[in-house]
Amino acid sequence: MNGRRRRQGWLDAATIALSALIAASTPTLARAQDFPNRPVKIVVGPSPDVFSRIVAEHLQEVWKQPVVVESKPGGGGKLAVATVTGARPDGHTLLFATPTFTLATAMRLATYDFAKDFSPAALMGVIAYTLVVSPGTPANSVAELVALAKQQPGKINCGSAGYGTVPHLACETFNKVAGVQVVHIPYNSVNAAMLGVMGNQVQMFVAVSTVAKQQIAAGTVRGLAVTTAQRSVLLPQLPTLAESGFPTFVMPGWGGLMAPAGTPKAIVDKINAAVQDAVKDPKVAEKLLAVGMEPPPAMPAAAFADFIKEDIARWTGMVDAVSLEKLKEQ
Question: Which of 35, 45, 203, 270 has a CA positioned 20 to 30 A from the CA of residue 185?
Fold first, then answer.
């Protein structure tokens, strides 16, 4: 009799626990089904907002809610991060993330933990960087540029958009892997650095491929290689730096959406599915490619989270290889 009562007690306890679990999960599922139930905001840091605006236009058609893009470039992305991490974790406030944030983490400059303070939602696309040289630089390949730099140590200048930026890291990485001594020349913006290489003030610069493509076509700079692991759809005629003899020189750009940490998985997955559908749409893909964002590989939210961790690890390795001190303002 006592054994029967104990078994009944265990059964009742299990039933109560299961009921509690179902009750706890029901609001989350209901929120996911109802998402979005008000306007969605995509916050953009120091990066261009054009990528987010193209995808937002598609998302609001699907979600039947306004999707607003808000630029907060201050503090190298810190203002954008504060806006998103301070929002309710319900998917209605998202961050458009790029290597700006993972590189800041690698350089120990971030006041946030990028891997822990966000729930990675969706990869929107890949952005290639291109190594270009000035029209007066006698180099038509990476090998010729390396040979020139070795013949003239300290005489080849490499432009960047400022200390600690991706182009600056590219200059220092080039020195490290090629065994040369190019001199870093910081400008205050990407556009200023591009004007510098176009005007032969600096001999080389690593630019976003959209900008590079325009100037290569105009004949104002010469493209030598791209920094992605595979050739760029925008500039398929250019080899990768890996193909050019430097297999460790891989600096992929990307853009994606991040939700605040604690956002329910069901909502994150819903955002992921909507973004993946958006970037597969031929019209959206064409618009993104026109402004320099290439199609991403299919990637669920969990895989994007792994991608973020790998990106931080990649930048950390590159920063450590060239020395953090070289990337700080002198």
Answer: 45
